[in-house]
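request received
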Amino acid sequence: MTTLLINIKELIQVREATITKVSGADMKVLPTIKNAFLLIENDTIVDYGSMDNVPTLIENTIDCTGKMILPTWCDSHTHIVYAGNREQEFVDRINGLSYEEIANKGGGILNSAKKLQETSEEELYKQSAVRLEEVMKLGTGAVEIKSGYGLTVEAELKMLRVIKKLRENYKLPIKATFLGAHAFPTEYKSNKEGYINLIIEEMLPKVAEENLAEFIDAFCETGYFSVEDTNRILEAGKKYGLTPKVHVNQFTTIGGVQVSVKHNALSVDHLEVMNKEDIETLKGTNTMPVALPSCSYFLSIPYTPARDIINAGLPLALATDFNPGSTPSGNMNFVVATACIKMKMTPEEAINAATINGAYAMNLSDEVGSITKGKKANFIITKEILSYGAIPYNFGSVLIDSVFINGKAI
Ligand code: NIG
Ligand code: FE
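response:
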Protein backbone atom coordinates (compact mmCIF):
# COMPACT_ATOMS: atom_id res chain seq x y z
CA MET A 1 0.00 0.00 0.00
CA THR A 2 1.21 3.50 -0.85
CA THR A 3 0.52 6.40 1.51
CA LEU A 4 1.26 10.05 0.85
CA LEU A 5 1.57 12.52 3.73
CA ILE A 6 1.10 16.08 2.50
CA ASN A 7 1.34 19.70 3.73
CA ILE A 8 3.83 18.73 6.45
CA LYS A 9 4.76 22.01 8.15
CA GLU A 10 8.34 20.75 8.63
CA LEU A 11 9.88 17.35 7.87
CA ILE A 12 12.64 16.90 10.44
CA GLN A 13 15.91 14.94 10.35
CA VAL A 14 16.09 14.39 6.59
CA ARG A 15 19.38 12.63 5.79
CA GLU A 16 21.18 10.71 3.08
CA ALA A 17 21.74 7.04 3.93
CA THR A 18 25.50 7.59 4.15
CA ILE A 19 25.14 9.62 7.38
CA THR A 20 25.09 7.19 10.32
CA LYS A 21 25.97 9.52 13.20
CA VAL A 22 26.61 13.19 13.87
CA SER A 23 29.40 14.55 16.07
CA GLY A 24 30.70 17.80 17.55
CA ALA A 25 29.56 21.02 15.87
CA ASP A 26 27.50 19.04 13.31
CA MET A 27 25.13 18.10 16.12
CA LYS A 28 23.81 21.66 16.08
CA VAL A 29 22.51 21.08 12.54
CA LEU A 30 19.15 19.38 12.08
CA PRO A 31 18.30 19.14 8.37
CA THR A 32 14.63 19.78 7.61
CA ILE A 33 12.31 20.52 4.69
CA LYS A 34 9.52 23.03 5.23
CA ASN A 35 6.11 22.51 3.59
CA ALA A 36 6.96 18.96 2.65
CA PHE A 37 5.51 15.63 1.54
CA LEU A 38 6.52 12.13 2.61
CA LEU A 39 5.75 9.05 0.52
CA ILE A 40 5.71 5.59 2.07
CA GLU A 41 5.19 2.20 0.47
CA ASN A 42 4.13 -0.52 2.89
CA ASP A 43 6.71 -0.30 5.69
CA THR A 44 9.33 1.81 3.88
CA ILE A 45 10.06 5.49 3.17
CA VAL A 46 10.34 5.79 -0.61
CA ASP A 47 10.35 9.52 -1.25
CA TYR A 48 10.09 12.97 0.30
CA GLY A 49 10.50 16.57 -0.79
CA SER A 50 8.96 19.98 -1.06
CA MET A 51 5.21 20.27 -1.69
CA ASP A 52 6.18 21.99 -4.96
CA ASN A 53 7.07 18.53 -6.25
CA VAL A 54 4.34 16.48 -4.59
CA PRO A 55 3.35 13.34 -6.53
CA THR A 56 -0.23 13.07 -7.75
CA LEU A 57 -2.79 10.29 -7.89
CA ILE A 58 -1.95 8.52 -4.63
CA GLU A 59 -4.92 6.52 -3.28
CA ASN A 60 -4.19 7.06 0.43
CA THR A 61 -3.39 10.64 1.42
CA ILE A 62 -2.99 12.10 4.92
CA ASP A 63 -3.15 15.86 5.35
CA CYS A 64 -0.66 17.10 7.98
CA THR A 65 -1.38 20.84 7.81
CA GLY A 66 0.22 22.61 10.79
CA LYS A 67 1.94 19.40 11.95
CA MET A 68 5.56 18.26 11.79
CA ILE A 69 7.05 14.82 11.15
CA LEU A 70 10.21 13.47 12.71
CA PRO A 71 11.68 9.96 12.95
CA THR A 72 10.55 7.97 15.99
CA TRP A 73 12.84 8.08 19.02
CA CYS A 74 15.63 5.48 19.14
CA ASP A 75 15.99 4.39 22.76
CA SER A 76 19.33 2.58 22.84
CA HIS A 77 19.46 1.76 26.58
CA THR A 78 16.60 0.24 28.58
CA HIS A 79 15.85 -2.43 31.15
CA ILE A 80 12.13 -2.63 30.26
CA VAL A 81 11.83 -6.30 31.23
CA TYR A 82 11.45 -6.32 35.01
CA ALA A 83 9.01 -7.58 37.62
CA GLY A 84 7.01 -5.41 40.00
CA ASN A 85 8.50 -2.11 41.10
CA ARG A 86 10.74 -0.50 43.73
CA GLU A 87 8.38 2.15 45.02
CA GLN A 88 9.38 1.39 48.61
CA GLU A 89 13.03 2.23 47.82
CA PHE A 90 11.84 5.45 46.20
CA VAL A 91 10.21 6.42 49.50
CA ASP A 92 13.30 5.26 51.44
CA ARG A 93 15.40 7.63 49.36
CA ILE A 94 12.98 10.49 49.96
CA ASN A 95 13.41 9.75 53.67
CA GLY A 96 17.18 10.05 53.42
CA LEU A 97 18.75 6.74 52.40
CA SER A 98 21.12 6.84 49.42
CA TYR A 99 20.92 4.56 46.36
CA GLU A 100 24.18 2.99 47.56
CA GLU A 101 22.91 2.44 51.11
CA ILE A 102 19.77 0.75 49.78
CA ALA A 103 21.87 -1.53 47.55
CA ASN A 104 24.19 -2.41 50.44
CA LYS A 105 21.16 -3.52 52.47
CA GLY A 106 20.24 -6.06 49.77
CA GLY A 107 17.86 -3.73 47.96
CA GLY A 108 18.51 -2.28 44.54
CA ILE A 109 19.30 -4.66 41.69
CA LEU A 110 19.17 -7.69 44.03
CA ASN A 111 15.65 -6.70 45.11
CA SER A 112 14.54 -6.65 41.45
CA ALA A 113 16.35 -9.96 40.82
CA LYS A 114 14.46 -11.66 43.66
CA LYS A 115 11.13 -10.43 42.31
CA LEU A 116 11.99 -11.49 38.77
CA GLN A 117 13.15 -14.95 39.81
CA GLU A 118 9.76 -15.48 41.49
CA THR A 119 7.77 -14.27 38.46
CA SER A 120 6.71 -16.61 35.65
CA GLU A 121 7.84 -15.97 32.09
CA GLU A 122 4.22 -15.31 31.05
CA GLU A 123 3.67 -12.75 33.79
CA LEU A 124 7.03 -11.08 33.08
CA TYR A 125 6.08 -10.84 29.41
CA LYS A 126 2.73 -9.27 30.30
CA GLN A 127 4.23 -6.60 32.55
CA SER A 128 6.97 -5.81 30.02
CA ALA A 129 4.55 -5.59 27.07
CA VAL A 130 2.53 -2.93 28.92
CA ARG A 131 5.70 -0.82 29.26
CA LEU A 132 6.68 -1.35 25.65
CA GLU A 133 3.24 -0.28 24.43
CA GLU A 134 3.42 2.79 26.64
CA VAL A 135 6.76 3.94 25.22
CA MET A 136 5.67 3.27 21.64
CA LYS A 137 2.73 5.63 22.17
CA LEU A 138 5.27 8.16 23.46
CA GLY A 139 7.08 7.97 20.13
CA THR A 140 9.73 5.29 20.58
CA GLY A 141 10.15 3.31 17.37
CA ALA A 142 13.27 1.25 18.13
CA VAL A 143 14.51 0.00 21.47
CA GLU A 144 17.34 -1.91 23.12
CA ILE A 145 16.48 -4.05 26.15
CA LYS A 146 18.92 -5.63 28.62
CA SER A 147 18.80 -8.69 30.82
CA GLY A 148 20.48 -8.34 34.24
CA TYR A 149 17.66 -8.74 36.76
CA GLY A 150 17.89 -12.54 36.61
CA LEU A 151 21.41 -13.20 37.94
CA THR A 152 20.90 -16.97 37.71
CA VAL A 153 21.27 -19.02 34.53
CA GLU A 154 17.53 -19.74 34.38
CA ALA A 155 16.33 -16.23 35.22
CA GLU A 156 18.73 -14.52 32.80
CA LEU A 157 17.49 -16.82 30.02
CA LYS A 158 13.90 -16.12 31.07
CA MET A 159 14.47 -12.37 30.62
CA LEU A 160 16.10 -12.82 27.24
CA ARG A 161 13.30 -15.11 26.06
CA VAL A 162 10.79 -12.43 27.05
CA ILE A 163 12.75 -9.90 24.95
CA LYS A 164 12.67 -12.36 22.05
CA LYS A 165 8.91 -12.77 22.40
CA LEU A 166 8.42 -8.98 22.45
CA ARG A 167 10.39 -8.82 19.21
CA GLU A 168 8.15 -11.46 17.65
CA ASN A 169 4.94 -9.73 18.70
CA TYR A 170 5.74 -6.05 18.13
CA LYS A 171 6.75 -4.47 14.86
CA LEU A 172 9.48 -2.08 16.03
CA PRO A 173 13.16 -3.13 15.94
CA ILE A 174 14.16 -4.57 19.35
CA LYS A 175 17.78 -5.37 20.22
CA ALA A 176 18.77 -7.60 23.15
CA THR A 177 21.77 -7.16 25.44
CA PHE A 178 23.05 -9.80 27.86
CA LEU A 179 23.82 -8.12 31.21
CA GLY A 180 24.52 -11.07 33.51
CA ALA A 181 27.25 -8.85 35.03
CA HIS A 182 24.79 -6.38 36.57
CA ALA A 183 25.38 -7.18 40.28
CA PHE A 184 26.88 -9.97 42.38
CA PRO A 185 24.13 -12.21 43.85
CA THR A 186 24.29 -12.44 47.67
CA GLU A 187 25.54 -16.04 47.59
CA TYR A 188 28.56 -14.92 45.53
CA LYS A 189 29.44 -11.82 47.63
CA SER A 190 32.60 -13.47 48.87
CA ASN A 191 33.17 -15.52 45.72
CA LYS A 192 33.09 -12.96 42.93
CA GLU A 193 35.30 -15.15 40.78
CA GLY A 194 32.65 -17.87 41.04
CA TYR A 195 29.91 -15.62 39.66
CA ILE A 196 32.08 -14.39 36.79
CA ASN A 197 32.85 -18.01 35.94
CA LEU A 198 29.11 -18.76 36.00
CA ILE A 199 28.52 -15.91 33.53
CA ILE A 200 31.32 -17.01 31.23
CA GLU A 201 31.02 -20.77 31.44
CA GLU A 202 27.28 -21.30 31.82
CA MET A 203 25.24 -18.25 30.91
CA LEU A 204 27.10 -17.07 27.83
CA PRO A 205 27.15 -20.42 25.97
CA LYS A 206 23.38 -20.80 26.49
CA VAL A 207 22.64 -17.21 25.44
CA ALA A 208 24.66 -17.80 22.28
CA GLU A 209 23.18 -21.24 21.61
CA GLU A 210 19.64 -19.84 21.67
CA ASN A 211 20.79 -16.71 19.83
CA LEU A 212 19.21 -14.53 22.51
CA ALA A 213 21.45 -11.46 22.42
CA GLU A 214 23.51 -9.36 20.04
CA PHE A 215 25.24 -7.23 22.68
CA ILE A 216 27.05 -7.80 25.98
CA ASP A 217 27.11 -5.37 28.90
CA ALA A 218 28.63 -5.14 32.40
CA PHE A 219 28.07 -2.65 35.22
CA CYS A 220 31.68 -1.46 35.47
CA GLU A 221 31.57 0.46 38.73
CA THR A 222 33.10 0.64 42.20
CA GLY A 223 31.41 -2.07 44.29
CA TYR A 224 30.11 -3.88 41.20
CA PHE A 225 32.31 -5.18 38.36
CA SER A 226 35.93 -4.02 38.28
CA VAL A 227 37.78 -3.09 35.11
CA GLU A 228 39.48 -6.49 35.20
CA ASP A 229 36.10 -8.28 35.62
CA THR A 230 34.68 -6.22 32.76
CA ASN A 231 37.67 -7.05 30.60
CA ARG A 232 37.14 -10.79 31.12
CA ILE A 233 33.42 -10.57 30.43
CA LEU A 234 33.73 -8.50 27.27
CA GLU A 235 36.50 -10.78 26.05
CA ALA A 236 34.37 -13.85 26.65
CA GLY A 237 31.37 -12.23 24.94
CA LYS A 238 33.43 -11.46 21.89
CA LYS A 239 34.17 -15.19 21.43
CA TYR A 240 30.42 -15.65 20.94
CA GLY A 241 30.14 -12.69 18.59
CA LEU A 242 28.55 -10.33 21.14
CA THR A 243 29.38 -6.63 20.74
CA PRO A 244 30.01 -4.62 23.94
CA LYS A 245 27.68 -1.83 25.12
CA VAL A 246 28.81 -1.00 28.63
CA HIS A 247 27.55 0.72 31.82
CA VAL A 248 30.47 2.98 32.83
CA ASN A 249 31.22 6.09 34.91
CA GLN A 250 27.83 6.31 36.63
CA PHE A 251 29.27 7.10 40.06
CA THR A 252 33.06 6.84 39.67
CA THR A 253 35.64 6.90 36.92
CA ILE A 254 37.70 3.73 37.25
CA GLY A 255 38.75 2.95 33.66
CA GLY A 256 35.45 1.68 32.29
CA VAL A 257 35.66 3.89 29.22
CA GLN A 258 39.18 2.63 28.47
CA VAL A 259 38.36 -1.06 28.77
CA SER A 260 35.23 -0.60 26.63
CA VAL A 261 37.12 1.24 23.90
CA LYS A 262 39.81 -1.43 23.99
CA HIS A 263 37.09 -3.93 23.07
CA ASN A 264 35.69 -1.61 20.39
CA ALA A 265 32.40 -1.14 22.26
CA LEU A 266 29.47 0.13 20.22
CA SER A 267 28.57 2.44 23.10
CA VAL A 268 29.56 3.53 26.60
CA ASP A 269 26.54 4.50 28.66
CA HIS A 270 25.84 6.72 31.71
CA LEU A 271 29.05 8.85 31.85
CA GLU A 272 27.76 11.06 34.66
CA VAL A 273 31.33 11.33 35.94
CA MET A 274 33.92 11.98 33.23
CA ASN A 275 37.51 13.16 33.46
CA LYS A 276 39.65 14.62 30.66
CA GLU A 277 41.30 11.28 29.97
CA ASP A 278 37.92 9.60 29.47
CA ILE A 279 37.00 12.17 26.83
CA GLU A 280 40.42 11.85 25.16
CA THR A 281 40.03 8.08 25.04
CA LEU A 282 36.79 8.35 23.06
CA LYS A 283 38.28 10.55 20.34
CA GLY A 284 38.80 8.80 17.01
CA THR A 285 36.89 5.67 18.07
CA ASN A 286 33.67 4.06 16.81
CA THR A 287 32.22 4.08 20.34
CA MET A 288 29.08 6.19 20.90
CA PRO A 289 28.85 8.00 24.26
CA VAL A 290 25.28 7.64 25.62
CA ALA A 291 23.76 9.93 28.26
CA LEU A 292 20.77 8.98 30.42
CA PRO A 293 19.44 12.24 31.89
CA SER A 294 16.27 10.74 33.40
CA CYS A 295 18.51 8.63 35.65
CA SER A 296 20.37 11.74 36.84
CA TYR A 297 17.02 13.43 37.44
CA PHE A 298 15.52 10.55 39.43
CA LEU A 299 18.62 9.80 41.53
CA SER A 300 19.71 13.44 41.89
CA ILE A 301 23.21 12.63 40.63
CA PRO A 302 25.30 14.72 38.19
CA TYR A 303 24.23 15.00 34.56
CA THR A 304 26.56 13.71 31.85
CA PRO A 305 28.77 16.65 30.78
CA ALA A 306 27.27 16.89 27.30
CA ARG A 307 28.97 20.19 26.47
CA ASP A 308 32.44 18.84 27.25
CA ILE A 309 31.74 15.75 25.15
CA ILE A 310 30.27 17.59 22.15
CA ASN A 311 32.79 20.45 22.30
CA ALA A 312 35.54 17.81 22.12
CA GLY A 313 34.15 16.88 18.69
CA LEU A 314 32.51 13.68 19.90
CA PRO A 315 29.00 12.42 19.12
CA LEU A 316 26.44 11.89 21.87
CA ALA A 317 23.28 9.77 22.05
CA LEU A 318 20.40 10.08 24.51
CA ALA A 319 18.41 7.17 25.95
CA THR A 320 16.01 6.56 28.84
CA ASP A 321 17.60 3.77 30.94
CA PHE A 322 13.96 2.74 31.77
CA ASN A 323 14.34 0.45 34.82
CA PRO A 324 12.68 -0.04 38.22
CA GLY A 325 15.50 1.38 40.37
CA SER A 326 17.19 4.40 38.88
CA THR A 327 14.78 5.46 36.10
CA PRO A 328 11.18 4.25 36.23
CA SER A 329 10.32 6.20 33.07
CA GLY A 330 10.65 5.40 29.39
CA ASN A 331 9.58 8.79 28.09
CA MET A 332 12.04 9.95 25.41
CA ASN A 333 10.23 13.31 25.14
CA PHE A 334 11.19 13.98 28.75
CA VAL A 335 14.77 12.82 28.03
CA VAL A 336 15.08 15.30 25.15
CA ALA A 337 13.65 18.12 27.29
CA THR A 338 15.88 17.31 30.26
CA ALA A 339 18.97 17.16 28.03
CA CYS A 340 18.21 20.72 26.89
CA ILE A 341 17.29 22.07 30.31
CA LYS A 342 19.93 20.38 32.46
CA MET A 343 22.73 19.45 30.05
CA LYS A 344 22.62 22.63 27.95
CA MET A 345 22.07 20.79 24.69
CA THR A 346 20.26 22.74 21.98
CA PRO A 347 16.99 21.27 20.63
CA GLU A 348 18.86 20.30 17.43
CA GLU A 349 21.58 18.50 19.39
CA ALA A 350 19.06 16.70 21.58
CA ILE A 351 16.93 15.55 18.63
CA ASN A 352 20.03 14.33 16.78
CA ALA A 353 21.13 12.49 19.93
CA ALA A 354 17.72 10.84 20.39
CA THR A 355 17.29 9.74 16.78
CA ILE A 356 20.22 9.19 14.42
CA ASN A 357 22.86 8.72 17.16
CA GLY A 358 20.52 6.45 19.12
CA ALA A 359 20.07 4.28 16.03
CA TYR A 360 23.87 4.05 15.71
CA ALA A 361 24.14 2.96 19.36
CA MET A 362 21.91 -0.05 18.58
CA ASN A 363 23.47 -0.96 15.24
CA LEU A 364 20.26 0.12 13.52
CA SER A 365 21.58 2.88 11.27
CA ASP A 366 20.29 1.09 8.17
CA GLU A 367 16.72 0.91 9.45
CA VAL A 368 15.78 3.88 11.63
CA GLY A 369 16.95 7.22 13.06
CA SER A 370 16.27 9.56 10.14
CA ILE A 371 13.89 10.35 7.30
CA THR A 372 15.85 8.55 4.60
CA LYS A 373 14.76 6.69 1.47
CA GLY A 374 14.86 2.95 2.16
CA LYS A 375 14.58 3.27 5.95
CA LYS A 376 11.56 2.05 7.88
CA ALA A 377 8.48 4.26 7.88
CA ASN A 378 8.74 4.78 11.65
CA PHE A 379 7.86 8.38 12.42
CA ILE A 380 6.03 10.75 14.74
CA ILE A 381 3.38 13.19 13.53
CA THR A 382 3.31 16.06 16.02
CA LYS A 383 0.32 18.08 17.11
CA GLU A 384 0.09 21.54 15.59
CA ILE A 385 3.21 23.28 16.94
CA LEU A 386 5.08 26.45 16.03
CA SER A 387 8.54 24.87 15.90
CA TYR A 388 10.26 21.60 16.84
CA GLY A 389 11.80 23.51 19.76
CA ALA A 390 8.39 23.10 21.43
CA ILE A 391 9.26 19.45 22.14
CA PRO A 392 11.89 20.30 24.80
CA TYR A 393 10.42 23.72 25.66
CA ASN A 394 7.02 22.37 26.68
CA PHE A 395 8.64 19.76 28.93
CA GLY A 396 6.18 17.36 30.50
CA SER A 397 3.74 17.72 27.60
CA VAL A 398 3.47 15.08 24.92
CA LEU A 399 3.11 16.91 21.62
CA ILE A 400 2.44 13.75 19.63
CA ASP A 401 -0.61 13.43 17.39
CA SER A 402 0.21 9.91 16.13
CA VAL A 403 3.03 7.40 15.83
CA PHE A 404 3.68 5.29 12.73
CA ILE A 405 5.60 2.03 12.97
CA ASN A 406 6.36 0.15 9.75
CA GLY A 407 4.10 2.51 7.85
CA LYS A 408 1.04 2.01 10.08
CA ALA A 409 -0.43 4.23 12.79
CA ILE A 410 -0.29 2.43 16.13
O1 NIG B 1 21.50 1.67 34.42
N1 NIG B 1 23.48 1.19 36.80
C1 NIG B 1 23.11 0.05 36.70
N2 NIG B 1 21.92 -0.38 36.33
C2 NIG B 1 20.72 0.37 36.18
C3 NIG B 1 19.94 0.53 37.44
C4 NIG B 1 19.83 -0.66 38.24
C5 NIG B 1 18.78 -0.64 39.29
O2 NIG B 1 18.83 0.16 40.24
O3 NIG B 1 17.88 -1.47 39.18
C6 NIG B 1 21.05 1.69 35.56
O4 NIG B 1 20.85 2.75 36.15
FE1 FE C 1 21.15 0.99 32.61
